[in-house]
Specification:
There is one protein chain. By secondary structure, the chain is an alpha/beta fold. It is built from 14 helices and 22 strands. It folds into 3 domains: 4-148 and 276-337, 3-Layer(bba) Sandwich (FAD/NAD(P)-binding domain); 162-273, FAD/NAD(P)-binding domain (3-Layer(bba) Sandwich), CATH 3.50.50.60; 351-461, FAD/NAD-linked reductase, C-terminal dimerisation domain (Enolase-like, domain 1). The strands form 5 sheets. Strands 1, 2, 3, 4, 5, 6 and 17 form a 7-stranded mixed sheet that branches. α1 (14-25) packs parallel to α9, α3 runs antiparallel to α4 and α3 (48-67) runs parallel beside α6. It is globular, with a radius of gyration of 24 Å.
């Protein structure tokens, strides 16, 4: 009976471990199976958390080296110790993964280390090694196995010179020249880390704009700021080949419009062209769980697959591949299984790029509203006119609010600027409650703060900003 559960979650990433904890809180006998050997998934081990550590440390290094003297903080002999920096990052990861294990113990979630394979709708086998296997019985299953980095045809990632985001988190020295293939948020975050630490970074992007899916005005401003910071962009180029050439890597790429061919030689190449659902070895076809043409598991509004007691959440299903989206789905599934009304509002899922300045977004872009023939108003306010940003020398960027022309309901918010990864929470909350731009404009914001730019942008929707 000890290996008989109400719920087994396969995958211990942000979606999986949160789902397991919530289910246990709701009185279910719950287990979580994770093959990595550490909880937290890609996000905690080789994604969000280590990258944010390096983003923060590299920004501090850059400020100390480039900005402090101009601000009256005179420092000399600044040195980069990459080994210490990586050690600091790794320590943070260990503390947090152990923290999740502690939460499992606290909530009585049983943790199995090994590869979980589904043999029937009620049977899972955990393979710890070739010799050790454990049979588990369960009433319900949640698949939360996440995603893995993809590459381009013919490009082999070796995690030495040609790396995915995982390899880019662990260089043992700063590459003189780094090429980033793909202008999405992961490539730009990692590119900005190494640029700040001294690399000459070139981003090669197939499209003629970066960060696809983002509001275009913000995307264009973002590229201008990154260019000013020293990152080079080759836009509208298709990568044909990436080959190791001794200690260097040679990249051949072709202009999409005029077919002109170019070559660049660099020390390291980061291939950052997206991620795909990881469902390998789960036995999904055998048990009747169906996938769509992109390899994502098909689910209904209750996150139920084509097998009634098997659910799926996070990167293995449709939607943005974001840790917090997976967490919301994990909680929703646990509550649905407990007979409650679990729900995820997909219209209010914030997204953040943790460069400097940060980029944050929630809701619809202008391009989406135009496509939907929705009548809207725009309110914009630059950080250049915000007193806190001005005194902190953080004046790049702006706040942009999109509101319904008829009802004034906020439809989307897009911010590029200081601390906007935290500021976007106010706008997500406002949208969750169906706020109008007038509601935000009439809410008192503390002075002097960066958030005053939100109030001013809301005032600008009605063409009445005070400070611009």
């Amino acid at each position: 009976m000890e290996n008989n559960f109400d719920l087994i979650v396969i995958g211990g990433g942000p979606g999986g471990y949160v789902c397991a904890i919530r289910a246990a809180q709701l009185g279910m006998k719950t287990a979580c199976v994770e093959s990595r050997g550490a909880l937290g998934g890609t996000c905690l081990n080789v994604g969000c958390i280590p990258s944010k550590s390096l983003l923060n440390l590299s920004e501090n290094f850059h400020k100390a080296k480039k900005d402090f003297n101009n601000q009256g903080i005179e420092v000399e002999g600044i040195k980069l110790n990459i080994e210490k920096m990586m050690s600091n990052k790794n320590k943070s990861i260990q503390v947090l993964t152990k923290g999740v294990e502690f939460l499992f113990k606290k909530n009585k979630v049983v943790y199995f280390k090994g590869k979980g394979v589904i043999f029937s709708k009620n049977d899972i086998v955990v393979y710890e090694s070739n010799s050790k296997r454990t049979n588990l019985k369960t009433k319900n299953i949640v698949i939360a196995t996440g995603s893995e980095a993809t590459s381009l045809a013919g490009i082999k990632i070796d995690e030495k010179n040609i790396v995915s985001s995982t390899g880019a988190l662990s260089f043992d020295k700063v590459p003189k020249k780094l090429a980033v293939i793909g202008g999405g948020y992961i490539g730009l975050e990692m590119g900005s880390v190494w640029s700040r630490l001294g690399s000459e970074v070139t981003v090669i992007e197939y499209l003629d704009f970066i960060t696809p899916g983002m509001d275009r005005e913000v995307s264009n401003e973002f590229q201008k700021i990154l260019t000013k910071q020293g990152i080079k962009f080759k836009m509208g180029f298709k990568v044909e080949s990436v080959k190791n050439k001794g200690n260097l890597v040679s990249i051949n790429y072709t202009n999409v419009k005029n077919a002109k061919k170019e070559t660049i030689e660099v020390d390291k190449v980061l291939v950052s062209v997206g991620r795909k659902p990881y469902t390998e070895g789960l036995n999904l076809t055998k048990v009747g769980v169906q996938k769509d043409e992109k390899g994502r598991i098909q689910v209904n509004k209750k996150l139920q697959t084509t097998v009634d007691n098997i659910y799926a959440i996070g990167d293995v299903i449709k939607g943005p591949m974001l840790a917090h989206k997976a967490e919301e789905e994990g909680i929703a599934v646990a509550e649905i299984l407990a007979g409650q009304a679990g729900h995820v509002n997909y219209d209010v899922i914030p997204g953040v790029i943790y460069t400097s300045p940060e980029v944050a977004t929630v809701g619809k872009t202008e391009e989406q509203l135009k496509k939907e023939n929705k009548s809207y108003k725009v309110g914009k306010f630059p950080f250049l006119a915000n007193s806190r940003a001005k005194v902190n020398n953080e004046t790049d960027g702006f706040v942009k609010i999109l509101a319904d022309s008829r009802t004034d309901k906020v439809l989307g918010v897009h911010i590029i600027g200081p601390h906007c990864g935290d500021m976007i929470a106010e706008m997500a909350l406002a949208m969750e409650f169906g706020a109008s731009s007038e509601d935000i404009a009439r809410t008192c914001h503390a002075h002097p703060t960066h958030t005053e730019a939100i109030k001013e942008a809301a005032l600008a929707v009605d063409k009445r900003p005070i400070h611009f």
